[in-house]
């Protein structure tokens, strides 16, 4: 399970160095093989999956009936845009240029461990999201049982 927040820098070639705290776990879980795709629910963010987790999600998304526009949009953003990457010998991965441009990731970014996947956020989008407060009106029934 991945968790934690890391401020990272994307180099001039579009690579990010995976934080040392995640390297061993990534090697163990997926042999350094990962998949980037768009986060269809949040602007300014990409998802990064270990290949096994990706294959499960890919199959679920592809199973959605294509007769609904929202299903086709999800398939396009998640499956159609998927890019396989591998850690190099320096534990770096190449973030696809088209995806970086589409979500506004430049040199500074934030990598979040989100359980079974990572989210890669532009620094600005992450900061804006962190500044949003969850108000009383936003609390769902499922959240009521949390012991915070």
From TrEMBL:
Domain SpoVT-AbrB: 5-53, 82-125
Keywords, sorted A to Z: Cytoplasm, DNA-binding, Repeat, Transcription, Transcription regulation
GO biological process: negative regulation of DNA-templated transcription initiation
Cited InterPro entries: MraZ, MraZ_C, MraZ_dom, MraZ_N, MraZ_sf, SpoVT-AbrB_dom, SpoVT-AbrB_sf
GO cellular component: cytoplasm; nucleoid
Predominant localisation class: cytoplasm
UniProt-annotated location(s): Cytoplasm, Nucleoid
Entry-linked Pfam families: MraZ (PF02381)
GO molecular function terms attached to this record: DNA-binding transcription factor activity; transcription cis-regulatory region binding
Subunit structure: Forms oligomers.
Protein family per UniProt: Belongs to the MraZ family.
Protein name: Transcriptional regulator MraZ
Organism: Tahibacter soli
Lineage of origin: Bacteria, Pseudomonadati, Pseudomonadota, Gammaproteobacteria, Lysobacterales
Gene: mraZ
């Amino acid at each position: 399970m991945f968790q934690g927040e890391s401020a990272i820098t994307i180099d001039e070639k579009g690579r990010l160095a995976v934080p040392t705290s995640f390297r061993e776990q990534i090697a163990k879980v997926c042999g350094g093989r990962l998949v980037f795709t768009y986060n269809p629910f949040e602007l300014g963010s990409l998802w990064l999956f270990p290949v096994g987790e990706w294959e499960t999600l890919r199959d679920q998304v592809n199973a959605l009936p294509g007769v609904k526009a929202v299903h086709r949009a999800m398939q396009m953003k998640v499956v159609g845009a998927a890019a396989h990457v591998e850690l190099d010998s320096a534990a770096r991965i190449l973030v696809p240029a088209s995806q970086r441009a589409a979500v506004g990731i430049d040199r500074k970014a934030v990598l979040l461990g989100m359980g079974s996947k990572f989210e890669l956020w532009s620094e600005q989008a992450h900061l804006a999201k962190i500044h949003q407060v969850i108000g009383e009106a936003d609390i769902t029934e499922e959240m009521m049982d949390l012991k915070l």
